[in-house]
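Q: What would this chain look like folded?
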Amino acid sequence: MGPLFLQLPPDFGPDQIPDLDRFLDLLPDDFNYSVEVRHQDFYVKRQDIALSRTLARHNASRVILDNRFASNFPASAKTISIHHIGKHPILRYVGHFEPSMNQDLLTRWSDVVAGWISEGCLPYIFFHTHNDDAAPELARLFHDLLSEKVEVGELPESPEDQLTLSFQQHASV
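A: My prediction, written as structure tokens:
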């Protein structure tokens, strides 16, 4: 099983890191945890370092949110900071609804994720778009890019591909 994803609310700011520290103290040690912060002040280097120290102390991983295509996120918060990732980092990529617009960022992320894998991490990646229609295509694109750098195995058929194949088999009967 992968890490338990702990997504903090957008109003959970850096001044609440001690609360996060106490909360993580209460969790069982036999699970892996990944924490996502969404408050824009966590994108300030000093605050990111304080968060990284807390996560490292609890052996928790970081959820890295890349939402540079999200129009409702402040431009000042669109810098991606990755001081501490842990053993099970999660990349939550909010992509452009037009898959081709993601090529450059996904190429850069494939380099980063390949490095994590080479260092012995087990990263988890998931994709969003505005309405999630393009998310499966982004996952396939990213898999292709990452496969050029490290061995990640075959991508299983998507439910969409399985339905298409099933429909074609039934239509030919």
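The chain is about 40% helix and 15% strand.
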